[in-house]
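Hi support team,

I've been running sequence recovery on a batch of backbones for a student project. Most finish fine, but this one hangs at about 90% for roughly twenty minutes before it completes. I'm not sure whether the input is malformed or the queue is just slow. I've pasted the structure tokens below so you can try to reproduce it. Let me know if you need the job ID as well.

Thanks,
M.K.
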């Protein structure tokens, strides 16, 4: 009997309304029961997604910092290449053989303007050897070691260099003042033909430097009536506080009567200025 009813129900779908009603009644119960699980699962997915975004943002920030550091390094390399290119162009224009040296150390004593470079006696460096950069004369080799040397800059108070005005050949001596951007050119007559903007180059006298190397540009000329000498200031052309590479000029001046001249003879202690000068 029951089998027949089931068969009849299967064929005629007599219980479908009852099943639909039962499903309708039971669905909210299933929804309520499953809701906490679905909420937990959704929260877990959101938390996982948020964590992934945080990790991705952190990775991108780190990558950005790395890229910025690399860009800074590339910018520094580009500047260094430009500087080296200028140095090589300067070496090409120098008529004498040169040796490239790199800065090792700077003396922090404000009263001594000296540098240490990575070339020494075993590289053929000699005392008094002229040192230049891409823009002008820097100084001379002072003390020598086997693999390094000390350069005394032209602004050191104990250094002096014979120069001449490129415009008219007027000869003078430029003394270091202890100030990195200033040279003193004393003992020029008050009526001397020198003016701001004049280029001072090595004169070749004194045996220290070959002639014609740029040294400084005149910045100030004070010619006061009643004073025997003009007050002349000049600014070095070399980048004394920036150059990391420099050229050591491989030359020794010669005197027909004496042969090679010791280049250290160009070091001249400044005389005390006369009263009123």
């Amino acid at each position: 009997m029951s089998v027949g009813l089931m068969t009849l129900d299967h064929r005629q779908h007599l219980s479908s309304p009852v099943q639909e009603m039962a499903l309708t009644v039971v669905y909210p119960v299933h929804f309520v029961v499953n809701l906490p699980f679905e909420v937990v699962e959704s929260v877990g997915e959101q938390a996982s997604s948020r964590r992934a975004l945080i990790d991705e943002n952190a990775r991108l920030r780190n990558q950005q910092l790395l890229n910025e550091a690399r860009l800074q390094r590339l910018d520094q390399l580009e500047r260094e290449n430009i500087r080296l290119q200028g140095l090589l162009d300067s070496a090409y224009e120098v008529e004498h053989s040169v040796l490239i040296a790199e800065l090792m150390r700077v003396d922090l004593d404000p009263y001594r303007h000296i540098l240490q470079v990575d070339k020494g006696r075993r590289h053929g460096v000699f005392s008094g050897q002229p040192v230049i950069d891409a823009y002008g004369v820097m100084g001379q080799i002072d003390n020598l070691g086997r693999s390094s040397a000390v350069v005394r800059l032209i602004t050191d108070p104990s250094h002096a260099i014979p120069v001449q005005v490129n415009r008219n050949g007027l000869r003078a001596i430029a003394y270091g003042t202890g100030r990195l951007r200033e040279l003193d050119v004393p003992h020029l007559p008050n009526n001397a033909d020198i003016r701001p903007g004049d280029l001072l180059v090595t004169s070749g006298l004194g045996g220290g430097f070959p002639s014609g190397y740029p040294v400084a540009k005149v910045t100030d000329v004070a010619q006061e009536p009643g004073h025997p000498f003009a007050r002349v200031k000049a600014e070095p052309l070399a980048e004394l506080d920036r150059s990391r590479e420099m050229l050591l000029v491989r030359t020794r001046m010669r005197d027909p009567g004496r042969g090679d001249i010791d280049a250290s003879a160009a070091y001249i202690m400044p005389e005390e200025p006369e009263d009123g000068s």
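--
Follow-up from support: It reproduced on our side and the slowdown came from queue contention, not your input. Helices lie at 2-12, 16-93. No action needed from you.
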